[in-house]
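User: ok so my PI wants both of these folded by tonight, can you help

Assistant: No problem, let's get them done. Here's the first:
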Amino acid sequence: MRLNGDLYRNCAKCTTESMRLIIYTGKGGTGKTVISCSTAIKLAEKKYNTLIISSDPAHTLNDAFQLHSTITRNRNDNNAIDVFPCLQVLQIDPTLEMNTRYHEVISYIASMFSSKGIDEVLAYEIAMMPGMIQLFSLLKVEEVIRLRSHDVVVLDMPASGEALRYLYFPKLVGKIGNRVTSLLGAFSGFTEIFQAFSGISIPNKILRYEKDLFNSLNQLSDIIKDNSITTLRLVANPDSFSIENAKRAFMAASLYGINTDLAVINKILPYEYNGVELNEFYTNWTKFQHAKVSEAKSNFYPLPIREVPLHSTELAGIEMLRANADIIFGDDDPSKIFYTGKLYSVIDQPPKNLKISVRVPFTQKQDYDIKRLGSEVIIKLDSPTGYLVNVIPLPTITFDMKMIGTRLRNNTLNVLFERRDL
């Protein structure tokens, strides 16, 4: 991916130390695309070569930046668009990616299904497995970082409760791929023998492609789990459903070893606007939302929280996104890693036990009550402003375990689980 020399001549030079990947995730409708775009603008204005990537089929980046035909397209990359100096937009088109880079593999998989009597149209639909769009965008990130074409990549993840799983997917597939390619190397004639007995022909070109893909996935996994490069940022609205979704994303990131450095609570109703107090209906909503913000600060402690008010009009266009960026970051550099650490830690204690550690601020033993309810642990904290309730989502491994006790030490609550006897 080459850059327009005139647009990028005054941008900061890309170095290993300065390369960053910032991933925004959140429930649909929270405004994460706007937050992602605002972050990208702030980075570009600080002279970082910035690329914002989205794989949202709705092409929301075009809407957010209000890109029109006057925007210069980079002739060397039919996806990247130059917005202004130091900022490019890359809208992943999954159909285009499939046709230009993955056509042979998808066609081969589809032909295998067709050979079993499945309708050709349906075979292609099955070959495009769930998560392929997310995988395309992640592989594009690996390419950009490998080529050192930008200093910072901002990734606007698709709105999905499963989005975080795709950040771990490269590591899983990469491990499997290494074993497969190792076996193929050890038994050079195995493929031909297998094809003769199975009747399934595996083209050598496909095997070579798979090896390259596994290598890319391994590289991508190393990038995502490198806390000096990659950080996850949560976007939520001040309501229960959105905050619970963000907490689950936070737990998943901790499990996968991905550092979360910031949470943004977006679209908060102000108590007044331009000096005019709101009527009773909006005042009640405002009080509710600000209570949720206070709850989120406690729930996400010690993660930094940025608060963004609900604007009086739709956020679209560079000027409004720039103003929004100033609200989020002020004079701070958005490429900064704002926090390193884990709110949740899951520690296996073989052969039967598991420990989940949760950071709880300013808590004494007599201040909390804890109980398990299905797939969640509910912690009730007694604070100076009243009771706060934190709902901790549990990892799948605990579903057949029983909670056997809790311990509080150094503002960390340890919840102990034991495997049930079969």
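One down. Here's the second:
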Amino acid sequence: MSQAELNGELFTLERFPPNAEEEALQAWEAADEYLLQQVNDVDGLTLIFNDGFGALACALAERNPVSINDSFISELATRHNLRMNGIDEESVRFQDSLSPLPAAPALVLIKVPKQLALLEQQLRALREVVTPETRIIAAAKARDVHNSTLALFEKILGTTTTSLAWKKARLIHCVFTAPELADAPQTYSWKLDGTPWTIHNHANVFARSGLDIGARFFLQHLPSDLEGEIADLGCGNGVIGLQALAQNPNASVMFTDESHMAVASSRLNVERNLPDDIARCEFMVNNSLSGIEPDRFTAILCNPPFHDSAESARAGGERKRRNLGLGAESGLNFGGQQQELWCEGGEVAFISQMIRESQAFARQVKWFTSLVSRGDNLPPLYRLLTEVGAVKVVKKEMAQGQKQSRFIAWSFMDDAKRRRPF
């Protein structure tokens, strides 16, 4: 928790979910400050895109802005910080990136996302509602404003210029001139090998361009013939839950993710590939399994984030790009952002939280599973599994080329109990 002077006012802001280990980390950045320096001479409908922890929404709450975000956790963070500062949550209207935008905004503020596909989707949506009089300003760290970023604004919206850097942040100014633009599909699709299925991916879905190695291996080891409910936790495009649905005809599947686009992709993939099974599905945008009653699921499946910060995710991508001889502007070597790729504390923290939460489902769920990308993360996870009372722990190794990974499975039931039907 820390204080920030934004738009001439002092605000107390906190990262979300609140965590004592993160108290020293700011919930705003220079790009937020830089954006707010530009807005005082503009009145009217204000749209805010990708406001990570709500710094912009808090500073501009008197304008009754519309906050557009694909991340449900960012919405929770914004609501949390509004309450922290005594601001009515109803002063900000929240909507996801797939919902229609209000027409003719006077001011549009964009925190540039790392994923160019998401930025393109948002700019195309804006193209339908902005006017030449709309003030459009985007901001990011200076190192994240590339020629490809500027070209996207220019191609979709119109005349684009950049500012000088300030506190290592840079602004992008854009004037809508309605340039000619070819239509683009709303989703990116590819065939899933070994199945008749086509997998459809909205713009901000992890591994939207193809099946990642972890999911490919996971698909080969999913349980079959279970009854009850299965949760695909952090479902992404839903490919894991889709296969679980096919292999467990007497079970239902909950697809849950903090990304609205991920859950929408999962729903679309069930509708297109297994339409007769849609009645056995539930689709939920949520922060993990928050608010879900205990003893509900027979199995929980998870392909977790594996970086401990956005910087770590970026560094990993840059390292792989160097190894492939690609340029600095090639972006991440895989799709996705927000909590899909990283969480504070990294893979160990994420899976440790899952292990602790699994205790509440110990009598109902036979097996919990999670991918583990780094072998040196196994010892602390094994220690925690012993502490919480897991009676069976299994590890499966996998490899593709030089890439080494594995998944672990654990159960609180002995062999006899696991063999019994629920």
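The radius of gyration is 22 Å. Residues 78 and 200 are 30 Å apart (CA to CA). Good luck tonight!
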